[in-house]
């Protein structure tokens, strides 16, 4: 797994970690069942705070892309490998745009849910 943090990026570090792990899973670089490094170790490797990496892992888990199995660690799920990179990029662009507009995350999520329900 290769992750790089761009300090000049408008995306916060946790989002950069989350997007890169999700993209690598979708591309097959990280197949289902791949164990991710422990939060503390990855934080040290990337020069980030433990809470930053923990947030990325939490958001990946909430999206169903990883699963934490206690002492067995955090692993990539089968769902993650089926998520298209294009969809991840669209989600990242939407998140960046709503942040730029000052829209709270819960409101942005509600807007997406409503839009998805309108088109199903």
| Number of distinct beta strands | 2
Morphology call? globular
Q: Write out the CATH superfamily name of the largest domain.
A: Winged helix-like DNA-binding domain superfamily/Winged helix DNA-binding domain
Mean pLDDT: 90
Number of helices: 6
Give your account of this protein's structure:
This protein has 120 residues and is mainly alpha-helical. The protein has 2 domains: 1-83, Arc Repressor Mutant, subunit A (Orthogonal Bundle), CATH 1.10.10.10; 84-120, no CATH class. It is 58% helix and 5% strand. The chain has 6 helices and 2 strands; from the N terminus they run H-H-H-E-E-H-H-H. It has helices at residues 13-26, 39-46, 50-62, 78-82, 85-100, 105-118, and strands at residues 66-68, 74-76. It has a two-stranded antiparallel sheet. Helix 1 (13-26) crosses helix 3 and helix 1 packs antiparallel against helix 5 (85-100). The radius of gyration is 15 Å and the shape is globular. The protein starts with 12 loop residues before the first helix and ends with a helix. The mean pLDDT is 90.
Main attributes of the structure:
120 residues; 6 helices; 2 domains; mainly alpha; two-stranded antiparallel ribbon; globular; Arc Repressor Mutant, subunit A; single chain
Present the secondary structure layout:
Elements (H helix, E strand, L loop, with lengths): L12 H14 L12 H8 L3 H13 L3 E3 L5 E3 L1 H5 L2 H16 L4 H14 L2
Helix pairs in contact: 1-3, 1-5, 2-3
Task: Provide a compact summary of the structure.
This protein has 120 residues and is mostly helical. It has helices at 13-26, 39-46, 50-62, 78-82, 85-100, 105-118; strands at 66-68, 74-76. The termini are far apart.
